[in-house]
Amino acid sequence: MCRKADGYAHARQFRRLRRAVKRQRTILGIVLREIRRKLTTATMECAASLDRLNTLLERAERIHRQQPKDKNKLYALHAPEVECIGKGKARKPYEFGVKASITVTHKQGVDRGC
Q: Any idea what the Cα angle at residue 23 is, between residues 18 and 29, rounded to 5°?
């Protein structure tokens, strides 16, 4: 389904793209509800794995709730600090990542600031 959406976006078939994205959101909602329902009956065998699962579920809920015009979107489950960077180039108008600045001084060497 994600592959289809990518193809529709590339071909500028936006109605089909919206339909595919809507279907993805529906499936995500179904899966989230089922996991939440089964999580209440889960035993507390490993607290670390349950914490990790809860973190991923919170991020998935955030992705499920967000709208196209929202600020502070979540673009990646594994890296929540990733942002959308506008580049202004026709072939690649947007890039996703984190801006960083690197400076070199004669006293300190490499200094990295974000």
A: 125
pLDDT at 45 over 80: no
Per the confidence metrics, is the pTM higher than 0.90? no
* Residue 73 per-residue DSSP state: -
Taking the chain, what is the end-to-end CA distance rounded to the nearest angstrom? Answer: 35
Residue 111 has what pLDDT? 63
pLDDT tops 70 at residue 44: no
CA 106 vs. chain centroid, Å, equals 39
- In order of 7, 8, 31, 67, the CA distances from 1 in angstroms are 10, 11, 15, 19
Non-local (6+) Cβ contacts of 27 within 8 A are: 1
Q: Is 112 helix (H, G, I), strand (E, B) or coil?
A: strand
